Structure to design on (210 residues):
């Protein structure tokens, strides 16, 4: 079984990256969403091992000290991070693991998993991004302005990503993302084991013909 590919997905709030990732998981059985650990308390209807791995602050700091996280950050008094064991287990099962994370975290993941591919999902335009944020009707005008300002900051790191996808249509964007993963799976580096097997078979057959 070929090991899966770690796919790090980032994007501005409102770009639709979560929807694109969910569409991939729904359409293909060889994808899995990474589940983060957090030290915050569960919200209503959130489930352990589905939404998050819920840890006490002490448990989370113990994970940090034992180097059990690919990356982590503290936000508004709570820790959030990606458990290394969960990701590695899914990759070894042949699953392509989708990890949604912001730019700073993506750079940390790349240093730990150099073979990971980094994909940044963009809206067709800044005006469309704001239209989507307003259309969600979940944030105040002030919060939308904060998210737009955050997007300005995040735009400074986009060039470090391997691929840029414009989410002008969810199905089309998901298909493009899947195409990238399929192409990466066919690279010579990913096919090293297959290459060596064929090489050995050729040697054996050539030797038998002599």
């Amino acid at each position: 079984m070929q090991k899966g590919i770690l796919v790090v997905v980032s994007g501005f709030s409102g770009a639709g990256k979560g929807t694109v990732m969910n569409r991939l998981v729904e359409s293909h059985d060889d994808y899995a969403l990474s589940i983060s650990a957090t030290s915050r308390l569960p919200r209503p209807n959130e489930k352990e091992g589905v939404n998050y791995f819920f840890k006490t602050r002490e448990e989370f700091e113990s994970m940090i000290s034992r180097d059990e996280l690919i990356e982590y950050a503290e936000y508004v008094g709570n820790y959030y991070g990606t458990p290394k064991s969960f990701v590695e287990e899914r990759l070894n099962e042949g699953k392509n693991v989708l990890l949604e994370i912001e730019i700073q975290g993506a750079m940390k993941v790349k240093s730990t998993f150099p073979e990971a591919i980094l994909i940044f999902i963009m809206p067709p335009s800044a005006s469309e991004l704001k239209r989507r944020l307003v259309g969600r009707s979940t944030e105040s005008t002030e919060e939308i302005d904060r998210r737009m300002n955050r997007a300005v900051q995040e735009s400074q790191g986009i060039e470090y990503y391997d691929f840029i996808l414009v989410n002008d249509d969810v199905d089309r964007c998901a298909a493009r993302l899947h195409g990238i993963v399929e192409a990466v799976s066919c690279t010579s580096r990913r096919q090293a084991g297959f290459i060596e097997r064929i090489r050995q078979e050729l040697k054996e057959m050539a030797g038998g013909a002599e």
Q: What stands out?
A: Residues 66 and 187 are 34 Å apart (CA to CA).
